[in-house]
Design brief:
14 helices; 357 residues; mainly alpha; 71% helix
Length: 357
């Protein structure tokens, strides 16, 4: 990403000469890491409760609730309690006032183009995640994300398109970035994206959640609007999975069987014979549209993206890459190798790898 070269407000052009020590930077990121560690603990507790036989029988046999209530309980604990609580704790960490951004804002067209850019990055990330998971598990693991949700479609969409985008954006974009960007936007974008990827605790998702997190972080820093990133996040989830889920929910049992056995190829015969339902036709059309949208996004990666990504240099900028004097290396170490962040990264990496066993 390029650095801002346009006019800079006077207060940024002439920063105070006494920059805070790297120790303050490390302490701030350690506190951010400890907040994320709190989420890990709450997430493990939520998973334990949602998989407890006692809770299951109390809810299903005792209250007569359906089996999917356990999956719904997990998401309620994560998105209704755990993430709001962690966001509240993180909000107690002092945040830094954002500098003016007169020339680095994003238009609606810019945001739409970034959504297209996210598609090939997601596809590439998913491919790399599959490769790494296969290597680490000697080909024995399977992607748990391919499992069909047991919840009703409406509830599944509520989690995917509302709860997850709202709470994840509040935590990782608004709370995290406003407490990390003081020492450099590029570093804040990369480290928030790393934390966002590790948050998913899944090797299969790691690479594409990293690129998604980086793009959303960039948009937040350019717009300072969490509502914009929430909407982008929701649209990404919709394009990446919800469209197909909606189609599958309304397709006939025969069409679903064809998709499970042959993919979209078998639907062509049904279409030619006039036997496809509207949902089946929609599934086929979207399966054709996604590669075209992904190709358009790939073109944008090599054309529009390279010349339009800009980050503003901060008054107390600490470079990520060493300039020969070791300052960049010290900055990267201050962000990552501290008690809170180091423990969070290590624990989440271990959890993600353990799920391949």
């Amino acid at each position: 990403m390029d650095s801002q070269t346009g006019p800079v407000p006077p207060e940024l052009a002439n920063p105070t000469p006494d920059a805070p020590p790297l120790g303050e930077m490390a302490r701030r990121h350690s506190r951010l890491g400890l907040c994320l560690l709190l989420f890990v603990g709450l997430s493990l507790l939520s998973s334990a409760l949602a998989s407890s036989d006692e809770v299951y029988f109390a809810l299903t046999d005792g209250l007569g609730l359906p089996d999917w209530i356990m999956e719904a309980l997990y998401y309620l604990l994560v998105y209704g309690i755990s993430l709001p609580l962690v966001a509240l704790v993180m909000s107690r960490i002092p945040k830094d006032a954002p500098p003016a951004r007169a020339e680095l804002g994003l238009s609606s067209l810019d945001i739409a183009l970034l959504l297209l850019v996210s598609l090939p990055l997601t596809e590439l990330g998913a491919y790399l995640g599959d490769l790494l998971a296969g290597f680490l598990s000697s080909g024995l693991a399977s992607d748990p994300l391919q499992a069909q949700s047991e919840m009703p479609l409406a509830l599944d969409l509520l989690v995917t398109l509302v709860a997850a985008p709202v709470m994840e954006e509040l935590l990782f974009r608004r709370c995290f970035l406003e407490r990390s960007a003081r020492w450099g936007e590029a570093g804040a974008i990369l480290f928030s994206a790393l934390c966002f990827a590790l948050f998913h605790e899944n090797v299969y998702q790691f690479f594409y959640t990293f690129t998604t997190g980086a793009l959303l972080a960039y948009v937040y820093l350019r717009t300072r609007s969490v509502g914009v990133t929430m909407l982008m996040h929701s649209v990404q989830n919709f394009l990446g999975g919800s469209v197909m889920d909606i189609c599958l929910a309304f397709m006939s049992a025969t069409e679903v069987d064809i998709v499970n056995e042959t993919g979209t190829e078998g639907l062509w015969g049904q279409l030619l014979s006039g036997g496809l339902t509207p949902a089946g036709t929609g599934y086929l059309v979207w399966a054709l549209a996604m590669p075209l949208l992904t190709l358009a996004g790939l073109v944008l990666v090599f054309t529009w993206l390279r010349g339009n990504l800009k980050v503003q240099r901060m008054p107390e900028e600490v470079p990520l890459l060493s300039d020969g004097g070791g300052e960049g290396k010290d900055g990267a170490v201050a962000r990552l190798l501290n008690l809170g962040m180091g423990c969070f990264v290590l624990l989440e990496a271990l959890i993600a790898c353990s799920r391949l066993l």
